[in-house]
Write a structure and sequence with these properties.
By secondary structure, the chain is an all-alpha fold. It has one domain. The chain is 68% helix and 0% strand. The protein is built from eleven helices and no strands. α6 packs across α9. It is globular and about 45 Å long. This is DUF4125 domain-containing protein. InterPro entries: DUF4125.
């Protein structure tokens, strides 16, 4: 295993450990016992990241442990600003780091780009798209979180350095000709980890 592959595996395991310590309303969630799916989904994302971004995010996770924070808990908490706003305002927002207006604005630019990429992917791969989360925050419910809201929650947990590197990665992909759709890249890795040779093959295999 190469050094960067080992780093990716370390990050996925680090996230998993924090996920195990995330408390859910109504008790432990079933997905907290599903390591194979968690590993596949998270590794597929990190396979699209450059090494400096991976190193920075692993540092975030380590610093969080040292300070008593849990970035996975915070991610799901931030999502509740949309899915359960009253609970978020009363019991989550006061206890998590607040983001500056500038940071929020920069995040929203990234989110808009990634939602557009996800919409493009879903238009071309209808069956795989159906298996994804709902796309936009407008589609959130108390029990279902959209791609947009999930991404907003995750970006909000990144340190300034990790966010800067992530922003640069998205900007580079958007500036490429043709653009490099990170949703498509992530899903390609996801289906490859599931045993398919291509997105077309995975699409054809969907019921």
């Amino acid at each position: 295993m190469s050094d960067i592959d080992a780093l990716r595996e370390t990050i996925v395991r680090h996230e998993w450990n924090q996920f195990q310590n995330t408390n859910n309303e109504g008790g432990r969630a079933s997905c907290q016992g599903n390591w194979p799916t968690f590993h596949q989904m998270r590794l597929a994302q990190f396979l699209t990241w450059p090494e400096n971004l991976l190193e920075s995010y692993e540092h975030d996770l380590t610093k969080a442990d040292e300070s008593g924070r849990n970035l996975i808990t915070e991610k799901y908490g931030r999502m509740m600003a949309s899915t359960w706003p009253e609970e978020f305002a009363a019991n989550i927002k006061p206890y998590i780091p607040q983001l500056s207006d500038e940071r929020v604005a920069r995040q929203e630019q990234i989110i808009a780009q990634q939602v557009a990429w996800a919409a493009d992917f879903r238009a071309r791969y209808l069956k795989l798209g159906e298996a994804m989360r709902a796309l936009t925050t407008a589609e959130d419910t108390p029990t279902a979180t959209s791609f947009e809201t999930y991404l907003r929650g995750e970006l909000g947990t990144y340190s300034d350095r990790t966010f800067d590197l992530y922003e640069a990665m998205i900007s580079e992909r958007a500036a490429a000709n043709p653009q490099r759709n990170i949703t498509e890249e992530t899903l390609l890795h996801t289906v490859a980890l599931g045993g398919f040779d291509s997105l077309d093959e995975a699409e054809a295999a969907q019921a």
